[in-house]
Input
Amino acid sequence: MSTVTPNANAASEEAVRQVPDAQGRFGQFGGRYVPETLTKALEELTHEYAKAKQDPDFQAELNELLHRFVGRPSPLYHAARLSKQLGGAQIWLKREDLNHTGAHKINNTLGQALLTLRMKKTRVIAETGAGQHGVASATACAHFGLPCVVYMGAEDVRRQKPNVFSMRLMGAEVRPVESGSRTLRDAVNEAMRDWMSSVEHTHYIIGSVIGPHPFPMMVRDFQSVIGRECREQCLSSFGKLPDTIVACVGGGSNAAGMFFPFVEDRSVRMVGVEAGGRGAAPGDHASPLTYGSPGVLHGSYSYVMQDEDGQTSDVHSMSAGLDYPGVGPEHSYWKDASRVEYTSCRDDEALGAFDFLARNEGILTALETCHAVAKATEIAKTMSPDQHLVICLSGRGDKDAAELARLRGQEW
Amino acid sequence: MTAIDDLFTRLRASGKKALMPFITAGDPNLPFTSKVLLRLQELGCSMAEVGIPYSDPIADGPVIQASYTRALANKVKLDQIFHQIAGTQPSLSMPLVSMVSYAIIHRHGPARYIESAKAAGFSGAIVPDLLVEESAPFAILCREHDFNLVQLVTPTTPQDRALKIAEQSSGFLYFVSVTGITGERTQLPDGLVDRVGWLRERTKLPICIGFGISKPEHVRLLSPVCDGLIVGSAIVRCLEKAHESEANAIASAAELVSSLLAALES
Output
């Protein structure tokens, strides 16, 4: 513990740490841009979450579930063979893929399902891209006996079929969304529209650090268990904080949960990796922090891919979970505060990382996560073997096997 | 004092109520939008609401979503909408209000949006995703430009909050009839008349009711307790076959509007 690097600049840390404010603002980002119909439910959620946060019984129940139902803490695994292959930093994998349901998403859905019960709401809706949040919502709802409807873009229903099947096995209703680009953005729109009519008895479990206040803050808090555990595990495994942390960013929930507990540790370099798709041309990627501009989408003010009129632009990523034109407002804040570096990784680089990790470590990684792995391997090579790099291994790749076969023209 | 303020002053003085149709700008093209506006005026509508197409409208049901999608598929741009309305303005005596997402206003620049909209002939804006808490900077700009910012009250809005929203609204107050998205409803919720009546006793601002209104019986039920009625999806549905025959689409919308106007007079 004694080797923790002291804080370098207290004033700027203060600025980066104390967010959001009571209006849900992370600096200029965040806020609440939704129809008046939803205000009452958002106020109720803000109030109930604030109470739950202070309630030892709530925290104990959530922790117990995370321990015995999810299997936390997730290991911090030293990828020794991978590190040796690259010849740079020691690479550590925070194994969120080993959680029940195979991704970090369950950390958030259990917390929000508990809040649903506290608010005495009787139905849950969710959106999903890769299907991991859909599965995690279906799981939490099955666990608590809540009916669950999951909106999923029709294109994502196709490319993430195993998760669609899992959701249905657990009793959730999956509603394919045929509008727009038939991906995550359209699923969020449909879930919001459902909520507009059902808000008095339904809770909308948003799956990422996006949407109107309090969602970006609350989802970050529920996911921060990743970073808190990781911090302790780094100290116990190699006696200091990591030099670098890398995570993939779609909406940005695994990254926010990993980064947040390290925000004040200025010695820790943090890198968020967006989906670079086919390249830098408009419509070929899903990298709002890299190529977008501040605007309003899905209830908050953040970087977004938009045209000159403020219409949301089409985006592309082979990974359904990153195929989203917006990003959580706290990431926009961290970007502008230069606390986190954001970069992007192309489809083909991510596919290369999938194979690299599969063959060198025996781990099949979610296509979303592969974006982080690809950039992390590049960064690790520039570091020395006595340095430590952590990758947030946010999800497992079983769900992607059929889509990988299709992308490669192989038989499934 | 905007043209909307002026309209409601006149209507109240003569004991009349407004019928306010909503149409989507550029569905399927902008010249058609002008034709429809002129026909609605000719029929006796007091004012019209012009929807600025938006890619992600979460308060809208399938009919208006589809109309936005058609307009955007034809690549309609905000500047073109303003240009078209400005060209029609000399023949329009009824006030126009734009229904527009804050995503568009922010991108255009709030002051520039107000200036362009006003120059085109709009008297105000309804911004369905700009809550009263977030609206102060834009509301100040609107006041400086004598441009109405119409705020919305819904069935989930607590009474004290409704009063606060009414204080911040200008032109009129948009009373959303249902907890939900836009679209025709067979039945409107119980207690709507009482809720509007309660608020109307407590604000001087004109109140217009919208969402779900599509039938003459809705108009007869609600017009005594409000200053105007807004009809959206039912009219947009009449106009959605305009690509087949503009004349038939306008005739179908005119028939609906005439029946609603007759109910308003009765």
The first helix of chain B runs from residue 3 to 13. The first strand of chain B starts at residue 18 and ends at 24. The two ends of chain B are 30 Å apart (CA to CA). Chain B touches chain A at residues 54-61, 65, 69, 72, 77-78, 101-108, 128-134, 151-158, 161, 165, 176, 178-181 (CB under 8 Å).
